[in-house]
Amino acid sequence: MDTEQAKETRSRWKMSITDVLSADDIAAALQECQDPDTFEPQKFFQTSGLSKMSASQVKDVFRFIDNDQSGYLDEEELKFFLQKFESSARELTESETKSLMAAADNDGDGKIGADEFQEMVHS
Q1: Confidence bin at 15 (pLDDT 50/70/90)
Q2: Torsion angle (degrees, nearest 10) of CA 80, 81, 84, 90
Q3: What phi, psi does 73 have (nearest 5°)?
Q4: Whether the Cβ atoms of residue 47 and residue 29 lie closer than 8 Å to each other
Q5: Residue whose C-alpha is closest to residue 106's, from 95, 96, 119
Q6: Model pTM score
Q7: Using an 8 Å Cβ cutoff, are 82 and 91 in contact?
Q8: What role does this protein play (predicted)?
Q9: Could you report the per-residue pLDDT of 63-122, keeping only the tens digit for each?
């Protein structure tokens, strides 16, 4: 039997990114990095409005980006980072993916946890 909490948790994962960020801000952030090798995480977080969100809200966005719900983002998931904000966005290049991983993977385990993601967004 489903509890109300279980239903609420499931529905939260079905959220759209525009439930928490403005579609115009997302479009502007994606415009700034539409060409390969132009993605700058801090600039993207600022333009999209992510950096203005609370730690809790950023962790909700993290869970939205975490395709397999493992609690971590690996390089394969990071490659599709922009597409989580807009399905028609480009994939990150290999160098952008590695740079994003290096910027956030504080413990060097080859993946980004929710706390690491939140720290990177707010750094």
Answers
A1: low
A2: -60
A3: -105, 125
A4: yes
A5: 119
A6: 0.85
A7: yes
A8: In muscle, parvalbumin is thought to be involved in relaxation after contraction. It binds two calcium ions.
A9: 999 999 999 999 999 999 999 999 999 999 999 999 999 999 999 999 999 999 999 999
CA torsion angle 44 47 50 53 (round to 10): 150
d(C-alpha 34, C-alpha 20), whole Å? 22
Q: Could you tell me the two tokens for 117? A: 């993601």
Q: Check if the beta carbon of residue 74 is closer than 8 Å to that of residue 66.
A: no
Distance CA 86, CA 18 (A): 10
Helical pair 55-65 and 4-13, crossing angle rounded to 10 deg: 70
The percentage of the chain sitting over the pLDDT mark of 70, rounded to a whole number, equals 88
With beta carbons less than 8 A apart as the criterion, state whether 15 and 64 touch: yes
Token code pair at residue 23: 């579609």
pLDDT at residue 16, as a whole number: 83
In this structure, which long-range contacts are made by residues 70-75, counting pairs with CB atoms below 8 Å and at least 24 apart in sequence?
A: 71/113, 71/114, 72/111, 72/112, 72/113, 73/111, 73/112, 73/117, 74/110, 74/111, 75/101, 75/110
